[in-house]
Amino acid sequence: MRVRLAYGETGLEIELPDAATTVVTPRHHPAAPDPAAALRAALRAPVAGPPLRDRVRPGQTVAISACDGTRPQPRHLMIPAILEELDGIVDPGDVTILVATGTHRGNTDAELRAMFGDAVVDTVSVVNHDARDAASLTYAGTHGADVPVWLNSTWVDADVRITTGFVEPHFFAGFSGGPKLVAPGLAGLETVLTLHDAARIGHPSATWGVTHGNPVHDDVRAIAAATGVTFGLDVILNGDKDIVAAFGGDLAAMHAAATAAAREAAMRPLDAPFDVVVTTNAGYPLDQNLYQAVKGMSAAFQVVRPGGLIVCAAECRDGFPDHGSYREVLASAPSPQALLAEIAARPRTVPDQWQVQIQARIQAGARVVMHTSHLGDDDLAAAHLEQTRDISATVADALAQAGPDARVCVLPEGPQTIPYLTAGTA
């Protein structure tokens, strides 16, 4: 059978044996017939609490948190919908859009215009959050399980704070969106490192689809609740990255409703592990670098047999990326097992340790082969990874080695679909 993988902006087709192949995709939900109307309804008839306009008074300052360029959030629709609701109440000069970069690089002016549209960038202030700029942060106390909370000062000082995001399963925070647009999105480096420390990331409940009892999400939720969010707006997207549904209102109730919808759309039970799992990172913009592609690997890891093969197709046009210390840390130890030992010995001191920890755990349990267009064989070898230029041939070889009953699972949309093994499977 031919299967089309989400890869870059163009996709990638592979050929796999019919009888041995299981393809797992999200339940397709059609796009909302009028996305603008869906967003207006979420702002005016929220899940919980009063409409947005009833929460804002003339003369107040407004901060709006939005995802950075590594996320397919429909910012060009969501932000104008909010600005339209605020029209006539607040002055555009009192509105700041904060790009919730977490520890990622800031977006360029050209990227911001592509993300938000020229009209937004030319009308209100759009600022990249910088987790490493101490002068731009305010200490907000200790919250959750002893998390020292530093947040973007513009966010803290605003009279009105609005989060905007999209909700999908997240590989250690349970689900994206909601409170993550406060921390880690707008948090200082110390806060992010604490939220992503070895103990939290290593907890068995720090995984796809789990929010309550997940030490990462429990703390993220506690920080947002303690520091205050005026209104939350999240959307659910389909495989075409179109808005399916919008949810607004009090942050906790809004996010709970959105996660319930995302769980139904994106999580799939399977009865047994597979010898080979082919995955992606859902194409552009999510597969811009290897750092993000770990999410696709993690989705595959849920259903690959111990010692099996994961093949991950991610374009990686932004490399590892080059900024930050991710590449350096991956290459600093002779094996994934050694990386895990180093992180365990020095929790919260290894840069990018949370992403490295998850990647090392995957590579310690399965062979991982990449298909990329922008990373060479030597680059990947330094990260304890292999490269294939022909996914179909690599899968065929692996199935032949595994025996006549070998099976392959394909996740064409990567972490847009999260498979999980039902209770009692081997």
Automatic annotation (TrEMBL):
Top-level taxon of the source organism: Bacteria
Domain Lactate racemase C-terminal: 273-414
Transmembrane segments: none
Residue ranges occupied by any LarA-like N-terminal domain in the UniProt entry: 7-209
NCBIfam families in the cross-refs: Ni_dep_LarA
Stated name of the protein: Nickel-dependent lactate racemase
Organism this protein belongs to: Actinoallomurus spadix
